Amino acid sequence: MSSVRQWLRDGVQVLFTQGPKAFARGVQRVLRRELAARNGEATAAAAAMQAPAQWPMLCWHLESPDPTQPPADPAKLDVRGWIAAVGDIEYVRFADARAARALDIALAPRPDVTAVYGMAATGFSASAPYEGVSQPGTLTLEFAVAGRKHEIVVPAYRPPTDVAALKRAKLERLRHSLQCPSCGSRAFDESPASLQCRHCSAVFPRSETALDFLTPELRAAFDIVPTENVSSNSYDGEALNIIHRLRDGLVLDCGAGLRERYFGNVVNYEIVPYATTDVLGVGERLPFADAAFDAVFSFAVLEHVKDPFACSRELLRVLKPGGTLYCQVPFLQPVHGYPHHYYNMTTTGMRNLFGDAIEVERMGTFLFGQPVFALSWILNRYAQGLPPGAREEFTAMKVGDLLEPGNKYLAAPFVTALAGATREELSCCNGLIARKR
Fold first, then answer.
1. What pairing do the DSSP bridges indicate for beta strands 251-254 and 188-191?
2. 111, 303, 336, 411: which has the highest count of C-beta atoms within 10 A?
């Protein structure tokens, strides 16, 4: 408390010239300032400790092993992949000492990856007989960029790859975790073709490959209509790490879309009966018991949900305490309906959506959500919404031209000739005037 010591030294003069009361008031003022400063430092430190980590500017891909495909050599563990990052990759190594001895990692540049992502990319490869690797489940490959350590979970196991068999085993495993989306009962009468709720008598079709909880009532209540749009995205490295770590658990992929890889521990939940769909239903009424899943995914889904607050409550309800929620929601993306598009979100909106029921570990703009993707998407869609003459005028403009205030261009052909559907898709702000019924 250097300011207090300074006052005590300087305060002697105050004591003799202004008296003991003035001296005491001076000491009190200094103490209050010192305590406020200390409290401010403590608050800032606590806030820094509690602030969620930011997404790093990097990505990785594990090319082998792929547990959804049969290995080329069943007796050998073949590890191959790449890391692309903004910054130097300081090391790549296995965390397990025995694996590190058995699997000698070779590194090499990957110009093919750099050409796609624009970042320096390093490929890694290693192979060894399975018996030389100590852990039969997963291995952890560590790497560091800019002093920060990251992990790639390597699935050092060989599960069955027959999709039909995986589907049957998964649906059998789900039998005791089902819940009627209409009334919440967990008691069903089963037949080869259906499940019937014992409480409300609702009937849900079933087959060897899927369960259908998407009743006509739920379709009507949440505006579920047929769509020709196909939602199909790949899992990123973070999602695959969760899947591989939970190989003996269950992961709910809510709004999974059509998955290019089918995992036996991931329940693909959808409104569309894709080939990889396991369960049909709506996000606002999940047909699963409380705490049924070890992790829950929601990737580019909540903007398409009619009631995202109800859906978020359901996602948390079916997630086990301590389980992992991995959620991605667009903010500055144009309208894209699968089949509808309702709400985009800020990070504050996402935090508000899930409330105090979660402890945030990381939040912010991930690599493939960088603003440059929004710029590219909006500019491309804008150009595509113009007739040929106005399109050429627009694409010939410089970035500096577009930094002018929008009102400067209100009469320009690239504004007046824009298609009505594109105006709605890229609208800066929507308005509503209505009369109460």
1. unpaired
2. 303
